[in-house]
Amino acid sequence: MLKNIAVVCLLAFAVTPAMAQGEKPEKVLKIISSLPRTGSANAQTTTMVNGIQLAIDEVNGKVGDYTIVYEDMDDASPQRGNWDPAVEAQNANKAVRDESVIAYIGTFNSGASKISMPVLNKAGLLMISPAATYPGLTKPGKGEANEPKIYRPTGKINFFRVVPADDLQGFVAAEWAKDMGVKKVYILDDRELYGKGIANVFENHAKELGIEVLGREGIDPKASNFKSLATKIKAAAPDMVYFGGTTQNSAGQIAKDLHTANATPKFMVPDGCFEKAFIEAAGAENVNGSAYITFGGLPADKLTGRGAEFRANYKKKYNLKENEEPEGYAVYGYEACKVLLDAIPRAKTKDRAGILQAVSETKNYNGALGIWSFDENGDTTNTTMSGNTVENGEFKFVKVLGK
Description:
The chain is an alpha/beta fold. It is built from 13 helices and 17 strands. The chain has helices at residues 2-14, 42-57, 85-97, 110-122, 166-179, 193-208, 227-236, 251-260, 276-282, 284-287, 306-317, 330-343, 352-360, and strands at residues 28-35, 62-63, 66-74, 76-77, 82-83, 101-105, 126-129, 159-161, 184-189, 212-218, 240-244, 267-269, 291-295, 365-367, 370-372, 385-391, 394-401. The strands form 4 sheets. The protein has a 7-stranded mixed beta sheet with strand order 10-9-11-12-13-16-17. A 6-stranded mixed beta sheet has the order 2-3-1-6-7-8, with helices on both faces. Strands 4-5 form a two-stranded antiparallel ribbon. It is globular and about 65 Å long.
């Protein structure tokens, strides 16, 4: 905990040079991010935080007469090693109480968004997610019966996301499976909002495409291994196993046990596993050539225009080697912050209400992810999806999906 506090202090100091000269509090605009910084998601979220910091550094920590202060908050706990509902609630309430906070970048996990969204909505505080992709957070008719209204107690939209939602990703994943000749699939999920939701989308469209679903079950993410499940799946003889879930919820262990049991030639996972930690957890030898990963966007080395500029600037600032790339979601952290910084000068008032309104009016934004807008639900109009595999222990781009 002390280490996290030190990081926060250093980040704040780095972007507030004028504070030492007596800058008035009313000239400070504070941005908070709430992401899982404890546990195996740390490698991914560190690059997201780096992306946010890069966006702030590009404007020298100033927008007009206002100094930008950034606080990197952890919504995970050591006990869980993953995002924690209690910690996420604390972060949201802390942000609401700090009147200088004008934006909350987060969350990484859709289940965490479900907790903080109503709290921030009541306070009229802007929330921009770089990674929460569950459709029910924004789209009527795509989740539970009371979604997304339950997350908007004021009736107004304050949640926006720069990443495409899972109703798109699960759909193109099923089509990719069909294109690869998959006729029979066994579907697993981690029982969480994100994992179960995207598995539902995949299953429904797979059936529409004529793919036989041999089985569907939720796993216990805390289980030490899945050897008996792998044996069961082997007996069913699927062409592919689809897992809806994240690296932190045992995707790697499942891949390892399926490979050891020789249960399936193909293992497909969504963007919650598009991180080096997945390959490390599974063991490269267990996923090389057999793992298929969908992602709501393009890998960093496939970005063009301002996306390519982001990649070059990121690699230079953070001293990445020639063969090293930012994790997949680094650009989304960057884009979430950049679209916020772009809206501040347009805001009629430099307070929560004014900045929220300006962000909601974002249209044809030319950013690192291309030219896109926020729609009436707060979703991005960007629908680019990619399919990737693992080769020699590294992710390898295969194709743009849904085209």
